[in-house]
Every structure is written in C-alpha cells, then in structure tokens.
Amino acid sequence: MYNYRTLTKSQLIELVNGIESTLSSTITSVESEAKNYSTEIPSQLAFEVGYFKGSVKTVLSLIEDYKNCSK
Fold this sequence. Notes:
Elements lengths: L8 H29 L3 H29 L2
Helix pairs in contact: 1-2
C-alpha cells in the first residue's frame, strides 16, 4: 500500500480537488451525453458505464502521477 504521508498537504488537497472535479463533471454530463448517443435505454446504460469507466481511469492516472511525483 502506498504511503500517502509522503505527499505534502497542498499536494493532497490538489489531488482531492482533481478527483472531485473529474468525477463531478462526469456525473453532470453523462446522462445528457447518453441521451444524445442513443434513444434506447440499454444503449444509454452501456454508454454511461463506458463514460464512467473512462473517468475512473482518469482519476487512477491522476493518483499514479502524484505517487510518481513524490518519489
């Protein structure tokens, strides 16, 4: 497990703000984007899952970048 204590307080705040920004923007836009993608509910749901998966990958990448910066 990574020791997040190696990050400074400002780095942790920046990291949390980046995570919050990425996830909150995804939540606000995913539903309208899915409706533009298709009118069928199963297709919309599949689109939403893919959209969320992309956001989770972005967040994980951001976390990994912070881990590498603190080394």
